[in-house]
Each structure stands twice: as C-alpha cells, then as structure tokens.
Design goal:
By secondary structure, the chain is α/β, with parallel strands linked by helices. The protein has helices spanning about 15-25, 55-65, 80-90, 110-115, 130-145, and strands at about 1-5, 30, 70-75, 95-100, 120-125. The protein is about 40% helix and about 15% strand. It has a five-stranded parallel sheet, with helices on both faces.
Length: about 140
Amino acid sequence: MKVYFCGSIRGGRDDVHVYRRIVQKLQSYGTVLTEHVSSPELTDRGEDATAAGDRFIHDRDVDWLQQSDVVVAEVTQPSLGVGYELGRAVAMKKRIFCLFRPSSGRRLSAMIRGAEDGDLFVVKDYSEDEAENVLEEFFNNLKRS
C-alpha cells in the first residue's frame, strides 16, 4: 500500500514531533511516499530545494498523490499546501483520513470538517497519545471494506 501523508511545512513546523509518530505508524501499513514531511531537519522554509524549485516540488508531490492508495493528513496546523493536497485528493477520489487535535485550541476549517462523508473522507478528532490507535482503527476498517 502507498500512503501519502500531509502535514504543514511552510505553514509552521510546531507539530513535527506528532508527524514523526504518525509516519512511523503509517510505515507499518506500507510505503509512505512523503515521509520527509516528518523530518525534524525540514524547516518552515520547505525543502532546500532542488535546482528546479517549487515547480519540481509541486509536480513531484502531485505525482505521488496520484500513485497513493490512501491519504492521511494531520490538519491541526493550518496549511495552504495541505488544503490544496486534500482538494486534489478529493478530485482524484482518494480515500482520505484527516486527524485533528482539538486540544490545540484551534478550530478546524469548515471546508475540511464539512467534507467528511464517513466513507472516502473521514475526519477524526484525537489526542496526541491516541495517534497510533486511531490510525490502527482506520486501517483495520480500510482492510474490511
């Protein structure tokens, strides 16, 4: 299984430690195409980019998104890039699992929360210590369907 993980990069790296836990768990289900999102070396400046720059990153990531079997997004830290990726994933009819931590004090965008359909687009509120368990529940349900 190929997993596309979305998390904030240029929108802020405050949750990188959470991303790391999520990516480590996702690796038990398959190949995480975007594991670099969880790297503590990656700053809010983004990838120290390749000579090709932003266009290369966009095209590569859209290609990975097309290859993926499932999209998992940590959406607590607002991010234009994550929102864009989710919109593209919806258009591609990908199965999407969004994780949001209410303890952050933030409110999740209505465009994300309102997209939940219980089937292809699922939003789950969780606490940091529940991350592995909610992922396990999602992937177990995915196997059954």
